[in-house]
């Protein structure tokens, strides 16, 4: 199957391409603008691994560049498009909303418009658990209210879902929005808690702990995320034109316990911790229900938090050898 993955140099995009390329029948086109939101070397190293496979074709394209984007859609008849290119990060969106407007709204519009014009069978795109805002009832279900985003990032993702709904209704385009819940694992994102904690603690540096660690997150291991996405790519057309799914484990972890597990793994006696207040845009708790996606895909998350943290720390040590 010919699949386009945008954001293929990113954490989830890379991991998805890597897994899909294990099946020789899949031809994967990857695009990414390789921006410097975080370490570009990390992105280049992910791409280097993907380029070893002859079924992978990379083009450095910005999804905001509609003419280049249309060209690649025109030349290749993509069966499925997975849009993971976006400006991620809740806190950064408070100070830099423009880039979120550009990548997440203009870029997303270009992707959905190309998917419609060039008759893509299925557009799968990244949304986020942040659309639930500061909810009080858990677990979070797909039909909960999502009208009160706490960050501009969440607002852009909510817009993606609404735009996708209109395209599914008007043009009959099959769209699936994925509300990812704190994805973690090897080759992860340096701006996220696990990477930052391990990087700093292993260099005996001080870590910033927001809200004094009184957060709860539904941490979802990368292989489980990819397990769900892969199923969604190949289970075509049996669940209607417009779908939204939570991509989560269905369990919530207290951040202090998460940090203690890291400290235990790194065998640290006295970690240096800088306790900070709750940051604007941050929600206190995420805990999703994965009932809908599990029912549809028959896939269940397999990696528990202890294993996941250990795998990340092993990868980090190996990567920095
Ligand atoms: N990782 C998570 O926990 C998480 C949680 C919720 C939602 N998401 C969403 O999932 C998607 C993937 O996230 P990720 O963690 O892999 O992030 P990432 O930043 O590692 O990956 C995004 C990739 O997209 C590329 N990109 C950004 N803007 C682009 C543009 N305009 N044109 C082309 N390429 C562009 C970046 O260079 C990057 O390589 C994003 O949409 C993100 O908002 C991620």
| Portion in helices | 40-55%
The average pLDDT score comes to 96
The residue ranges in which pLDDT falls below 50 over 5 or more consecutive positions are none
Largest sheet: 7 strands, parallel
Give me the count of strands: 13
Q: Strand portion, in percent?
A: 15-25%
CATH superfamily: NAD(P)-binding Rossmann-like Domain
* Overall number of structural domains: 1
Task: Produce the secondary structure layout.
Elements: E1 2-6, H1 11-20, E2 27-32, H2 40-51, E3 56-60, H3 66-75, E4 80-83, H4 92-95, H5 97-117, E5 122-128, H6 152-171, E6 175-180, E7 183-184, H7 193-201, E8 207-209, E9 216-217, E10 220-221, H8 222-234, E11 242-247, E12 253-254, H9 255-265, E13 273-275, H10 291-297, H11 305-319
Parallel strand pairs: 1-2, 1-4, 2-3, 4-5, 5-6, 6-11, 7-10, 8-13
Antiparallel strand pairs: 9-12
The chain binds nicotinamide-adenine-dinucleotide (NAD).
Can you offer a commentary on this structure?
The chain is α/β, with parallel strands linked by helices. It has a single domain (2-187, 219-250, 287-302), classed as NAD(P)-binding Rossmann-like Domain (Rossmann fold, 3-Layer(aba) Sandwich). The protein has 11 helices and 13 strands. The strands form 4 sheets. A 7-stranded parallel beta sheet has the order 3-2-1-4-5-6-11, sandwiched between helices. Helix 6 links the parallel strand 5 (122-128) and strand 6 (175-180). Helix 3 runs parallel beside helix 5 (97-117). The chain is globular. The two termini are 37 Å apart. Residues 6-7, 9-13, 32-35, 43, 62-64, 84-88, 103, 107, 126, 128, 180, 182-183, 189 line the site of nicotinamide-adenine-dinucleotide.
């Amino acid at each position: 199957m010919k699949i386009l993955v945008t954001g293929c140099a990113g954490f989830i995009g890379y991991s998805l391409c890597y897994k899909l390329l294990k099946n020789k029948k899949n031809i994967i086109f990857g695009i990414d603008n390789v921006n410097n939101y975080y370490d570009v070397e990390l992105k280049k190293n992910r791409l280097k691994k993907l380029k070893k496979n002859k079924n992978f074709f990379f083009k450095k394209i910005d999804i905001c560049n509609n003419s280049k984007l249309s060209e690649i859609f025109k030349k290749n008849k993509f069966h499925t498009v997975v849009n993971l290119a976006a400006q991620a990060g809740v806190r950064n969106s408070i100070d830099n909303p423009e880039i979120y407007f550009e990548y997440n709204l203009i870029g997303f519009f270009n992707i959905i418009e190309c998917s419609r014009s060039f008759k893509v069978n299925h557009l799968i795109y990244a949304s986020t658990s942040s659309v639930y805002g500061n909810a009080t009832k858990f677990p979070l279900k797909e039909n909960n209210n999502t009208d009160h985003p706490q960050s501009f990032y969440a607002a852009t993702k909510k817009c993606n879902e609404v735009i996708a709904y209109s395209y599914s209704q008007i043009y009959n385009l099959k769209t699936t929005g994925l509300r990812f819940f704190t994805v973690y694992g090897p080759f992860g994102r340096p701006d996220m808690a696990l990477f930052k904690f391990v990087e700093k603690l292993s260099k005996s540096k001080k870590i910033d702990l927001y809200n004094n660690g009184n957060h709860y997150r539904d941490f979802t291991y990368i292989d489980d995320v990819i397990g769900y996405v892969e199923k969604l790519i190949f289970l075509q057309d049996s669940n209607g034109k417009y779908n939204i799914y939570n991509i989560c484990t269905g369990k919530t972890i207290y951040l202090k316990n998460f940090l203690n597990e890291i400290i235990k793994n790194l065998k640290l006696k006295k970690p240096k911790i800088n306790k900070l207040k709750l940051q604007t845009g941050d929600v206190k708790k995420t805990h999703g229900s994965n009932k809908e996606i599990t029912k549809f895909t028959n896939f269940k998350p397999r990696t528990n938090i202890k294993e996941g943290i250990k795998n990340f720390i092993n990868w980090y040590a190996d990567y920095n050898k």
